[in-house]
Structures are given as structure tokens and as C-alpha cells.
């Protein structure tokens, strides 16, 4: 049987301006196996997948040089719709890949297009839905599905024609924690035998998946391909070996590691359940920021360093009800945002978190009261940075609100902010031309340039890779540390553990709990009710670490290498690990 | 399904197009008024559309129709002088204005009937089956339709996202200046183009356009569908004939008279 994918010397330029994306990439995916593709944002992972399904160069402009064959066909020659008979594609954004109004129609659509026999269609659609645990969604409207449900339907629609190869582009990246776990757990279960073209014949399905959130994949794919910033192959081989051998390089690229590999790379004596690992983590957490855990209130200074009294809240909401289209979406919320305190707002998709934030910012029709200290503007960054763009250049974008606010020394302020967020080099570029991570920094810059008293951030790490997430977290925490009151809506519980002071849980449009981070995240009943699936390290903290005095904020950095000089190293790192760390300290 | 929902969508669309075009040729107020009443009756009885929904659907057509009436009354002073409250207006302008206003209501209700009683997937499947439109075309329209249903929500988000950039904004008010709306429209457009690209990829990767296709849920086209069309057109013809006998029917010649 032909290999699912063969690529040699694959070099790809995309767009009308021929941006070089992939450089001399070679790998093979044998039939019936799975491949994980990892690399930093913008390294060409998505482009690689688009080449495999023929979209580049057929639908989107690009030049593909070198050898590439997918299930024995050349994806440059075979038209995309015809290639689709043997290759199924699932894209990132759940909302943009369902074409029809009803789930069943969506599944039948793929079969109809291939001229499949009408008689067996319903049964095949059923089988595909069953494979992804979504039979109950068959007659639902596609626009009413949650992200996790929509993504499962997209998987079923790709599976329904029994393709030999399934190509998945970050299928979990835009889902809430519970949704990501549902979809991620399915990925490697899709590898294996599928009914072949002739009755009784069995073909072997292969999977190629790009994914950041490796802990959410139930089992990791057989092989891993690592791409670097320049779109070259950094490593390729069996997953366990590649991740272990290149863990430092991967961390340097800003990639996330699965927790067990990350633990090993950091020098842990065993897997998470091992008592020695408990000791090691506890010892290592001591001396990290935030430990020992205490509900510290950061000393408060107002914006621009003016001291304020700690009791003066920056924003107070009482009995706040937010209406959308004549309906109350958020009910009766009491919330205080205090200077220097970062409040994380968590809860299931569609629970009203974003609407609450917009209500606090005065953008929706509200009843009840929201009072702010009049001298400070409430700023907000939205989930999609492109929605907030108003100007033609990055510099004008940052200067926009400064000009409207009539602040002193506007030019200086703008240049300082551009420098702080690493945007000086792009100051004259069009905001629409920036990468995802740069656009996020720009949206933060448009708020921080005002030295805001209150900053509200709606999923600011949405779709970012590990390094970009850390950079965003640092900006938000930094703002809180100079006295800004920060409200942060997020699904990333590790981020909450790392930067938040308090957590508000929003379910069904109501704040059902509000308290210290440690207290909220360790409440099992509350977490289940709010669909807060704790990542493994946070779970360890709730079960073990907490009782042994580990601060929840230390979790964010406990596996970081940069702090290894603090003397908190475990005693049992082997010689191989010692070398790895020597390398790491050389590069960091 | 109601009788109007059951009616073959291609036939229904064709009838609506014929009636709408024919209405352009009539310039007296009575004929469109009769047609409007008949259409509304069909919408309520055969389409089983709730009265409230039908009433709300009138709003844009009433607004447009009223403006047509006013414009014609003001700009056509000719004919017999008719006292209208404190004013005196020309009969020519009044008759023509009323005709255009009622024609707007009639054509408006025809489109409302089509929209409220036709399921998009059935319409597109039927257009592919019976009007031989290419599948790549009909399904692109369906995907665009799905994109459209989400646009109002995105529009609101964009307006909020841009409004928050103004530090002097007032609580609970989104800017309505032409400039603010234009900037929001641009952001909406950029987002729509990016989404359209992803949807195009999704359609192709589902194999749309790979060759001959089958249809799992064909839309039936039976004798009854054609009979219904004949009955509706005959009814419209009867209204015109009655107008000719009754003497109130006028054609487009009157516009230049």
C-alpha cells in the first residue's frame, strides 16, 4: 500500500509576494500511522497541511517545489475536490468549516459530492457521528453548536467518506478546556483500519495533526515532525524520542511539551504520580515567586505611580444586569475590581463572560450600577485584535486613544509603549499585516498606552503559542503590579494559576463563585459545574502540592529552566539531564 | 409542513418573479391592493405564519411605501384637486403614489412569503435539481447564507471593540457617526473575507465540484406544484381582467400621459 504522505525537498512560498514558508522539508507518513507536527507560530505548519490537501497552490496562491505525494497522488496536480476523496481536512476554527444549516445535511453533503449511493448514506452519516460520540447532535442546527460540538461534527464530516488520510489543523486550539479534552482525546483513535474501496477490503487510515495543546491529546501520535522558525525540519522521528531529545529546543521555540516529557526535561525523578516527584516538585516550588502561598495584595500605586488608598476600588458593579437584543444575558452581578488586583473570569462557553466584560466597559445596555473612578478610563482588549483596528499604521493605532484622551507628551508615550511591547520595528507597518502574536501585543499596547485604571481582557491568549501566551501573561501581570485593576476572561487555567489574584466563576450569566485563586480552583464541585477541566499539573497541586505548602502561582514557573540557578534543583537528575540543563543555560 | 412550505421552491420562486415583474406594468391603486390582500391571505392561511410575524415584516415596506406616496403627492400636482385634511393635493399624484405604495406592499409580501415559507437547503437543492444551477453555485450560496446569519453578531462585536478605544465614550452608547460606521464596516469586511476563504477551503475539502453528485433528500416536483402555479397565475389574471371590465385598470402608458 502507498505511504499516506511522502515529501522530499519540499519548499513552499505562499501569497502573491512569495513569502518563503517551508524550506527543504522531507518526511514520510506510512499508511496506518500518525504524525504530529509542532513548531512556533508562523513556522509553516498550517501551510504544510494546506499543501497536503492541495489548497496551496490550487485555491490559495503559492509555489510548491520538491517532491510530494499524498496517498499516491500529487496534491499539486489532482484537483482539491477530487483529492478530497482520499484526504479529509479539519481546520482550526469550528465556526468556519460547517457549510450547511443542519448537522445531518453537513455529513450527507460530503457523501453527495462524491456521488455516493443514496441508499447507504444515512447509515454512513450515523457511523461517522458515532465515531466521534456525536449521534445526539444529528438534527441540531450548526450555528447553535458549542465550539467542542462543532469541532466534533467537523471531524465526523471529514470521516464520513472514509478517507485514507485525515489532516487536522489545531483542532482543539479554540475550544474551552472541557471541549479541548473531548476533541483531543479522539484524534489518535481515528488512526487504523477503515473499509476499503472493495467490500471486505480494509485500508489503513493515517492522521497528520498540528497541535499545541499536547496534554489534551489522549495518546500522542506515533511520529513527530518539528519545524523551526525558518520552516526547516529541526527533528523528525518517533514521538517519544523526538520530544525527549529536543525538549530544550522545543521550549526555546515556544512550543509546549506534554507534562511527562516536560517533567523529565526539568529533571524530575519520575512521572507525576511518583512520591519522589512530589518531593521534587515541592522542593522546586519553594523559592519560586508566589511561594509560600499567601493571599498577598500587591502594594497599590495608581496609574503613573501616584499612590492611592488600597480601599479605593477602580470599578464597582452592583446588581449589574446586561441586556442583549432585549434579553438579560448577565444577571445581577456584584463585582469589585481593585487597583493592583488581577481578577480572572472563568466558566463555560456561552456563559456570558464576554457580555459581562462588555457590560463593565459600558458598551452594552445595562441596569444596576457600575461606578468607576472618574479620572481613569476603562480599557478593554477583545478576543480578535483585528476587530479593534482603527488606523493605517501601528504607530497611529497606538496614538489613537492618546490623542482622543488629550494626554500630555503623546509622542513620547506612544514610542515608549511601542518599545515596551516590542513593536518599534513594526511601527510603520499596517496593523492588518502583523502576525497573530504581534496583533495581540498591539491590542494590548492600545490599552496600556493610556496607563489605564482598569483593563478588561477577553481571552487575550486565544490562538497563541506557548511563548506568545507567556509574553501576554507577563504584560497583564505587569499592569496589575503597577496598580491597574485587571479583569481577565480566559479558559487557560494554568494562566489563571500563574497571574490571577482572584477568580470569578460565571455560569449561566451569573457569578456563582468569587474568591482567591487557590480556593476556587481546588473546589471540585465548582470546577465540574463550570466545566473547568484542570490540567494535570494543577490537578497535582489540588491533590498533593497544596497540602504541602506549594503556592498555586509557583505552578506556572516550577518547570521553567531559567530559574534553575536558585538552588531548588532536585537531587536526582541523571547525567543526561545534567547535560540537557547545561545546554539550556547556555542558550537561555 | 404547510402547503406553501410543501410547494416546490423553484416553482414558487418562478411564480413570485413573474408576479413581481407583472406588478411593474400596472399603475392603478386597486389592482395591487387586491393582489396584496390575496397574498397576505395566502401567507396567513396557507403559510400559517403568525399574525405578529407578518405585521413586523410589513414595517420596512410600509416605511418605503409611505415615502413613495409622499414624494408623488408633492411632485405631481396635476389633476383634480382633492382636499386632504388641511392640504389640497393633486389626484394624479395621489393615485400614482398610492399605486406605487401598494405595489411595494404587494411585492414585499411576495418576498416575505418566499423567505418565510422556504427552507434554504430545499430551495438550493431544488434549484440544482430543477433549474439546473451548478452545485458549486448553490452550495456557495448556502454557505454564504450561513455566514450572513452570523454577521449581525460580528457587527455588534466590532462596533463594541472599536467604541471602547475612545476614552471619552459615554456608557451604553455606541458611536453612530458615518466615520465610525465606515471603520466598523471595513473591519467587518476584512473578517468576512478571511472567513470566506476558510469556508471556500471547507467546501472544496468536502469534495464539492469533484464530479457528478447524488442528492440524499431530493425535493419532489409533482403535478400538484405546477397546478398550484397555474391557479395562482390564473387568479392574478382574473384580477387584471376584473380591473379591465371595472374600468380601474391602467398600464404604464399613464406614467407618460
TrEMBL record, chain A:
<comment type="similarity">
    <text>Belongs to the ABC transporter superfamily.</text>
</comment>
<dbReference type="GO" id="GO:0016887">
    <property type="term" value="F:ATP hydrolysis activity"/>
</dbReference>
<dbReference type="GO" id="GO:0043190">
    <property type="term" value="C:ATP-binding cassette (ABC) transporter complex"/>
</dbReference>
<dbReference type="GO" id="GO:0042626">
    <property type="term" value="F:ATPase-coupled transmembrane transporter activity"/>
</dbReference>
<dbReference type="InterPro" id="IPR003439">
    <property type="entry name" value="ABC_transporter-like_ATP-bd"/>
</dbReference>
<protein>
    <submittedName>
        <fullName>ATP-binding cassette domain-containing protein</fullName>
    </submittedName>
</protein>
<dbReference type="InterPro" id="IPR003593">
    <property type="entry name" value="AAA+_ATPase"/>
</dbReference>
<feature type="region of interest" description="Disordered">
    <location>
        <begin position="287"/>
        <end position="309"/>
    </location>
</feature>
<feature type="domain" description="ABC transporter">
    <location>
        <begin position="5"/>
        <end position="254"/>
    </location>
</feature>
<dbReference type="InterPro" id="IPR017871">
    <property type="entry name" value="ABC_transporter-like_CS"/>
</dbReference>
<keyword id="KW-0547">Nucleotide-binding</keyword>
<feature type="compositionally biased region" description="Gly residues">
    <location>
        <begin position="567"/>
        <end position="576"/>
    </location>
</feature>
<dbReference type="GO" id="GO:0005524">
    <property type="term" value="F:ATP binding"/>
</dbReference>
<keyword id="KW-0813">Transport</keyword>
<dbReference type="InterPro" id="IPR015856">
    <property type="entry name" value="ABC_transpr_CbiO/EcfA_su"/>
</dbReference>
<feature type="region of interest" description="Disordered">
    <location>
        <begin position="563"/>
        <end position="588"/>
    </location>
</feature>
<dbReference type="Pfam" id="PF00005">
    <property type="entry name" value="ABC_tran"/>
</dbReference>
<keyword id="KW-0067">ATP-binding</keyword>
<dbReference type="InterPro" id="IPR027417">
    <property type="entry name" value="P-loop_NTPase"/>
</dbReference>
<feature type="compositionally biased region" description="Low complexity">
    <location>
        <begin position="299"/>
        <end position="309"/>
    </location>
</feature>
<feature type="domain" description="ABC transporter">
    <location>
        <begin position="315"/>
        <end position="533"/>
    </location>
</feature>
<dbReference type="InterPro" id="IPR050095">
    <property type="entry name" value="ECF_ABC_transporter_ATP-bd"/>
</dbReference>
From TrEMBL, chain B:
<keyword id="KW-1003">Cell membrane</keyword>
<feature type="transmembrane region" description="Helical">
    <location>
        <begin position="53"/>
        <end position="74"/>
    </location>
</feature>
<dbReference type="InterPro" id="IPR003339">
    <property type="entry name" value="ABC/ECF_trnsptr_transmembrane"/>
</dbReference>
<keyword id="KW-0812">Transmembrane</keyword>
<keyword id="KW-1133">Transmembrane helix</keyword>
<feature type="transmembrane region" description="Helical">
    <location>
        <begin position="94"/>
        <end position="116"/>
    </location>
</feature>
<protein>
    <submittedName>
        <fullName>Energy-coupling factor transporter transmembrane protein EcfT</fullName>
    </submittedName>
</protein>
<dbReference type="Pfam" id="PF02361">
    <property type="entry name" value="CbiQ"/>
</dbReference>
<dbReference type="InterPro" id="IPR051611">
    <property type="entry name" value="ECF_transporter_component"/>
</dbReference>
<dbReference type="GO" id="GO:0005886">
    <property type="term" value="C:plasma membrane"/>
</dbReference>
<feature type="transmembrane region" description="Helical">
    <location>
        <begin position="13"/>
        <end position="46"/>
    </location>
</feature>
<feature type="transmembrane region" description="Helical">
    <location>
        <begin position="226"/>
        <end position="248"/>
    </location>
</feature>
<keyword id="KW-0472">Membrane</keyword>
Amino acid at each position: 500500500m502507498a505511504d499516506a504522505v511522502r515529501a522530499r525537498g519540499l519548499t513552499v512560498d505562499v501569497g502573491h509576494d512569495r513569502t518563503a514558508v517551508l524550506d527543504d522539508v522531507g518526511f514520510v507518513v506510512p499508511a496506518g500511522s500518525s504524525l504530529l507536527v509542532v513548531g512556533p507560530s508562523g513556522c509553516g505548519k498550517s501551510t504544510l497541511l494546506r499543501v497536503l490537501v492541495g489548497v496551496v497552490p490550487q485555491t490559495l496562491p503559492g509555489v510548491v517545489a520538491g517532491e510530494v505525494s499524498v496517498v499516491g497522488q500529487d496534491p499539486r496536480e489532482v484537483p482539491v475536490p477530487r483529492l478530497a476523496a482520499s484526504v479529509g481536512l479539519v481546520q482550526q476554527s469550528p465556526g468556519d468549516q460547517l457549510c450547511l444549516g443542519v448537522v445531518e445535511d453537513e455529513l450527507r453533503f460530503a457523501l453527495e459530492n462524491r456521488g455516493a449511493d443514496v441508499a447507504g448514506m444515512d447509515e454512513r452519516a450515523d457511523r461517522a457521528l458515532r465515531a466521534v460520540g456525536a449521534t445526539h447532535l444529528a438534527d441540531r442546527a450548526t450555528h447553535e453548536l458549542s465550539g467542542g460540538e462543532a469541532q466534533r461534527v467537523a471531524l465526523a464530516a471529514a470521516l464520513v467518506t472514509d478517507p485514507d488520510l485525515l489532516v487536522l489543523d489545531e483542532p482543539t486550539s479554540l475550544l474551552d478546556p472541557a471541549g479541548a479534552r473531548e476533541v483531543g482525546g479522539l484524534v489518535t483513535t481515528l488512526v487504523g483500519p477503515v473499509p476499503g474501496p472493495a467490500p471486505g477490503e480494509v485500508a489503513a487510515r493515517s492522521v497528520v495533526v498540528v497541535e499545541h495543546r499536547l496534554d489534551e491529546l489522549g495518546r500522542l501520535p506515533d511520529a513527530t515532525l518539528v519545524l523551526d522558525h525558518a520552516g526547516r525540519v529541526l527533528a523528525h522521528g518517533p514521538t517519544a524520542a523526538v520530544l525527549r531529545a529536543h525538549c530544550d529546543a522545543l521550549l526555546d521555540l515556544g512550543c509546549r511539551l506534554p507534562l511527562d516529557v516536560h517533567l523529565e526535561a526539568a529533571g524530575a525523578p519520575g512521572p507525576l504520580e511518583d512520591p519522589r516527584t512530589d518531593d521534587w516538585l515541592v522542593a522546586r516550588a519553594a523559592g519560586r515567586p508566589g511561594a509560600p502561598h499567601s493571599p498577598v495584595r500587591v502594594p497599590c500605586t495608581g496609574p503613573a505611580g501616584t499612590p492611592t488608598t488600597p480601599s479605593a476600588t477602580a470599578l464597582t458593579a452592583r446588581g449589574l444586569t446586561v441586556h442583549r437584543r432585549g434579553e438579560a444575558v448577565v444577571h445581577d452581578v456584584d463585582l469589585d475590581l481593585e487597583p493592583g488586583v488581577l481578577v480572572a473570569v472563568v466558566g463555560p462557553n456561552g456563559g456570558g463572560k464576554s457580555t459581562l466584560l462588555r457590560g463593565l466597559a459600558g458598551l452594552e445596555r445595562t441596569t444596576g450600577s457600575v461606578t468607576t473612578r472618574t479620572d481613569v478610563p476603562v480599557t478593554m482588549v477583545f478576543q480578535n485584535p483585528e476587530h479593534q483596528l482603527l488606523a493605517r499604521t501601528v504607530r497611529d493605532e497606538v496614538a489613537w486613544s492618546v490623542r482622543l484622551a488629550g494626554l500630555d507628551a503623546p509622542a513620547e508615550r506612544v514610542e515608549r509603549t511601542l518599545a515596551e511591547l516590542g513593536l518599534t520595528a513594526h511601527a510603520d507597518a499596517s496593523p492588518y499585516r502583523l502576525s497573530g502574536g504581534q496583533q495581540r501585543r498591539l491590542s494590548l499596547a492600545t490599552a496600556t498606552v493610556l496607563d489605564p485604571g482598569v483593563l478588561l481582557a477577553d481571552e487575550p491568549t486565544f490562538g497563541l503559542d506557548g511563548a506568545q501566551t507567556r509574553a501576554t501573561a507577563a504584560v497583564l501581570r505587569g499592569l496589575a503590579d503597577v496598580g491597574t485593576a485587571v479583569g481577565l476572561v480566559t479558559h487557560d487555567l494554568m494562566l489563571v494559576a500563574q497571574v490571577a489574584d482572584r477568580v470569578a466563576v460565571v455560569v449561566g450569566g451569573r457569578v456563582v463563585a468569587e474568591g482567591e485563586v487557590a480556593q476556587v480552583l481546588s473546589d471540585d464541585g465548582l470546577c465540574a459545574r463550570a466545566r473547568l477541566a484542570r490540567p494535570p499539573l494543577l490537578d497535582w497541586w489540588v491533590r498533593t502540592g497544596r497540602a504541602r505548602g506549594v503556592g498555586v502561582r509557583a505552578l506556572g514557573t516550577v518547570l521553567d529552566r531559567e530559574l534553575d540557578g536558585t538552588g531548588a534543583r532536585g537531587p536526582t537528575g541523571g547525567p543526561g539531564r545534567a547535560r540537557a540543563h547545561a545546554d539550556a543555560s547556555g542558550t537561555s | 409542513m404547510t402547503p406553501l412550505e410543501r410547494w416546490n421552491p423553484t416553482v414558487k420562486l418562478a411564480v413570485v418573479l413573474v408576479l413581481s415583474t407583472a406588478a411593474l406594468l400596472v399603475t392603478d391603486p386597486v389592482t395591487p391592493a387586491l393582489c396584496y390582500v390575496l397574498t397576505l391571505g395566502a401567507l396567513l392561511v396557507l403559510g400559517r405564519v403568525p399574525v405578529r410575524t407578518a405585521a413586523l415584516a410589513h414595517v420596512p415596506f410600509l416605511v418605503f411605501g409611505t415615502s413613495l406616496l409622499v414624494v408623488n403627492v408633492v411632485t405631481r400636482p396635476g389633476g383634480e384637486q382633492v382636499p386632504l385634511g388641511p392640504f389640497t393635493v393633486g389626484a394624479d399624484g395621489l393615485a400614482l403614489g398610492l399605486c406605487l405604495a401598494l405595489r411595494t406592499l404587494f411585492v414585499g409580501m411576495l418576498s416575505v412569503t418566499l423567505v418565510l415559507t422556504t427552507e434554504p437547503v430545499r430551495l438550493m437543492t431544488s434549484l440544482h435539481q430543477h433549474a439546473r444551477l451548478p452545485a458549486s453555485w448553490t452550495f456557495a450560496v448556502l454557505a454564504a447564507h450561513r455566514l450572513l446569519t452570523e454577521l449581525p453578531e460580528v457587527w455588534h462585536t466590532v462596533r463594541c471593540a472599536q467604541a471602547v478605544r475612545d476614552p471619552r465614550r459615554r456608557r451604553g452608547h455606541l458611536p453612530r457617526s458615518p466615520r465610525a460606521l465606515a471603520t466598523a464596516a471595513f473591519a467587518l469586511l476584512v473578517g468576512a473575507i478571511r472567513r470566506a476563504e476558510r469556508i471556500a477551503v471547507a467546501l472544496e475539502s468536502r469534495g464539492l465540484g469533484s464530479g457528478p453528485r447524488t442528492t440524499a433528500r431530493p425535493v419532489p416536483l409533482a403535478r400538484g406544484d405546477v397546478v398550484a402555479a397555474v391557479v395562482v397565475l390564473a387568479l392574478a389574471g382574473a384580477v387584471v381582467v376584473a380591473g379591465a371590465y371595472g374600468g380601474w385598470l391602467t398600464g404604464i402608458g399613464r406614467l407618460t400621459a
